[in-house]
Amino acid sequence: MITTIIIIITSLISIKAFKDDALLSKIIFHPPAVKQGGWYRLFTYGVAHADYTHLIFNMFTLYFFGMDIERVLKSAFGLTNGAISYIFLYISALLVSIIPTYFKHKNDSSYYGLGASGAVSAIIFSYVLINPMNFMGIMFIPIMLPAFLFGLVFILISLALEKKQFGGINHSAHITGGIYGIIYMVAVFFVFADTNLISSFISQIKINSISDLFHFGF
Question: Taking CA 16 as the corner, what is the angle to CA 97 and CA 101, rounded to the nearest 5 degrees?
Fold first, then answer.
């Protein structure tokens, strides 16, 4: 499974970077360094994490949602093309999710960023698009919502936190990654499978809403 390979590679490099400052300084996202030719940092920052909690949270989330999206793409496009589509989604999401941050901080020598959260958000929102009525929640918080509502709440909270610059977390990457994941999946399925995922998304919500109305006797 490609998801497992991504998790293993990311974990091994992240763990090594915990104790190797020289390695971390080479792969971390640092806008001035990118501006001076270190373009590879627009990708490598995704295999570095702040600590074990950061790493475990991202990799657990990737495993849970990534396995499903990987299966969906392989089922739709075949093993090889599905694998390529999945790999490209993850890698391109690393780039796309960090671009707004780069332009915002390109002259900020004190700004550093790391973590796979932007790409993981792309995977999560791909899942939301495919499975809008599946229930989702946040680890250790006993509140579950249909995926489409969870996604909406997540975006609204991230926008508010980004505006306040809360917690030293790059909420912009989460938002951009999530939106990109939806756009990528819609485009790929429309071009290569002649499938309208937006229509499918809306239909699933409508059908389940009507079913709930009958269930409750309205």
Answer: 20
Q: For residue 216, name the pLDDT band (cuts at 50, 70, 90).
A: very low
Helix (H, G, I), strand (E, B) or coil at 131: coil
Is the pLDDT at 196 greater than 50, yes or no?
yes
pLDDT of residue 218: 41
Give the count of domains, the chain: 1
Q: Is residue 49 a contact partner of residue 12, using CB atoms and an 8 Å limit?
A: no
Closest to 61 in 3D by CA, of 75, 49, 73: 49
**pLDDT score at 167:** 60
Angle between helices 171-193 and 79-105 (to 10 degrees): 150
Partnered with residue 136 across adjacent β-strands are 145
Strand residues in 145-216 grouped as ranges (E): 145-146
Q: Are 45 and 98 in contact (CB under 8 A)?
A: yes
Question: Of 161, 163, 200, 160, which is closest to residue 182 (Cα–Cα)?
Answer: 200
Phi, psi angle pair for 209, to nearest 5°: -65, -45
Q: How far apart are alpha carbons 129 and 181 in whole angstroms?
A: 9
Q: Residue 49 belongs to a domain with what CATH number?
A: 1.20.1540.10
Query: What range does the domain containing 50 cover?
Result: 2-215
**pLDDT value of residue 190:** 97
pTM: 0.91
